[in-house]
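Protein in question kept underneath.
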Amino acid sequence: MSRLNVASMERKRLKNLLEAVFTVCALQRTIGEAELTTMVAKARARGNKRVSALSRHRQSAVDFDALGLVIHRWQRSARYLDEVGRPLPISAHGPAPSIEALFREIRRSRYFKLGLEHLEQFKRVRRTAGRKYLPLNATTIVPTLTPELFEVLAQTMQRLVGTVLHNTSLRRGTSVRLIERLTLVPDLPRKQVPTFKKFAREQGAALIGTMNEWLESHRGKRKSRLAGASDRVTAGLHVFGFIESEK
């Protein structure tokens, strides 16, 4: 995909996100035009200030999708597993099985060198005594805010709004709608928060793992994907927990 097409997609996504935000604001009858203008100005100022602070510490762009795909293939592909299904320790360079080969298989060869650094930085791999690597955590945990995380946040908000708009635009009662469910209690004791976090992570990981297996097994043929076939769409499931304080 050319840089021009990528930039066009970025602008379209941001345009849709802004439209979604203004739609939500317009639905709030208590917010007048003058107040909305003030809110926008303040939000823009805070955003610019936050971006300025981030730019001083900005690192090379992290391709979270590529890192996740590498770990997934490492934990699922037969050539990367031992006789009991455990991931094999593999070298960084060379033919398969290797981390370099994994990046080739997901068509991110140019990202391999930097990607290996990011795999170590985010503790997705560990070195063995034999100078090889093993995969670690099932998820990437980023301890600080980065421009890439703000991009993920923007995509998350846009996709949630898109799901709601899709579901509410279907008029037939028999139409299949996208899942958009919520469960919460207003009075969970604070001492239960650590247990809730752990339980939510475990349940979410199990659901995402199952969904990932289904999605991978139903992808279009490789030639069609490379050709950018018009009958292909991006589909997925995003799970997250939340905690809100009454204060």
